Automatic annotation (TrEMBL):
Name of the protein in its database record: Peptidase C45 hydrolase domain-containing protein
NCBIfam families: C45_proenzyme
Organism: Penicillium coprophilum
Entry-linked PANTHER family: BETA-ALANYL-DOPAMINE_CARCININE HYDROLASE, PEPTIDASE C45
Matches recorded under Pfam families: AAT
Domain Peptidase C45 hydrolase: 74-301
């Protein structure tokens, strides 16, 4: 994947990652120790596990990782949801991870083997989603994106998670959608900047794979040509729902939004066969943070290969 997208070989990737190792060990030792444990258990070099967890930074966000995420607060529910799109070959590496700790809340997330922070929720009803954004540059003094996701899942609230990430900074470009049962906040980051996206007047937040806000001194590459159209479409679907019904959306309504094929192949639900190349929807997740539960649809939501319920009972 590095060779195909970034034109760099594995030894160069390893050399690049070595420059991050000492800083992560000093500033975030518990994450360093967890990656060391994975390395020992898998009998793989530590640097290879570290590479998985800082892959966004190494490639400056140059991965074909297209996703559409949303948050909606209602009177009785707080939905956080997204499609996660990437190359089909990565599907076999997806795992559901259940983490218990004496020092923080229990966590359930769907991630890729070896990566300690990804998309999911904790028992306190704090959840997180991720949208890749391609803006050149990274800063090794800041928290890598996937470790930032783990930091959110160890937090007690949206506000606590946002304060922590604004304090330490995020090492490269991304949109991290953080939510609990009270509110959602989107954090758009680059290696130099961080901006908040707040709920609109209907308590929605939407995001695809391009910067929505102005960030001084950085340029969005516009790497996925369909990102603006997906952003517009998910907003249209929400507006259409509000206009056609007086009730609040439920889980079925949310998954139908993620299962939209308007504009195919440049659609929210994506297929690898399209002209965009590598990416397809590998899973969809709908969390209800009011009850700290989630439903994971493996594969495309229109043709789920399995449906898994996550809760903390």
């Amino acid at each position: 994947m590095f060779a195909h997208i970034c034109k760099i070989d594995w030894q160069t990737v390893r050399t690049t990652a070595e420059a991050w190792e000492r800083g992560i060990e000093q500033r975030w030792p518990k994450y360093y120790r967890e990656m060391q444990g994975i390395s020992d258990g898998a009998q793989l070099p530590f640097i290879d596990i570290l590479i998985l967890n800082i892959r966004t930074e190494i490639a400056f966000g140059m991965f074909n990782d297209g996703c559409t995420s949303l948050y909606r607060k209602t009177d009785q529910h707080a939905f956080l949801a997204q499609n996660w799109d990437w190359m089909e070959e990565q599907k076999q590496n997806l795992i559901l991870l259940d983490i218990s700790s004496d020092s923080g809340p229990r966590i359930k997330m769907i991630t890729e083997a070896g990566i300690i922070g990804k998309i999911g929720l904790n028992e306190l009803g704090v959840g997180v989603c991720l949208n890749a954004i391609k803006v050149s540059g990274c800063d090794s003094s800041r928290l890598p994106v996937h470790l930032a996701l783990r930091s959110v899942l160890e937090s007690s609230s949206t506000d606590a998670a946002v304060r922590q990430l604004e304090k330490v900074g995020i090492a490269s470009s991304a949109h991290i959608l953080i939510a609990d049962k009270e509110k959602g906040i989107g954090l758009e980051s680059t290696a130099k900047t961080m901006r908040r996206i707040k709920m609109d007047d209907q308590n929605w937040i939407f995001h695809a794979n391009h910067l929505l806000l102005a960030h001084d001194g950085v340029v969005d590459s516009g790497w996925l040509v369909d990102s603006p159209s997906r952003q517009q479409r998910i907003q249209q679907l929400a507006a259409k729902f509000s206009a056609s019904t007086s009730r609040e959306p439920n889980v079925v309504d949310i998954i139908r939004m993620l299962d939209d094929h308007d504009g195919f192949p440049y659609s929210i639900c994506r297929y690898e066969e399209g002209p965009l190349g590598m990416d397809a929807t590998l899973f969809s997740i709908v969390m209800d943070l009011e009850g700290a539960t989630a439903t994971v649809y493996l594969g495309r939501p229109c043709e789920p290969e399995d449906v898994i319920q996550l809760d903390f009972q």
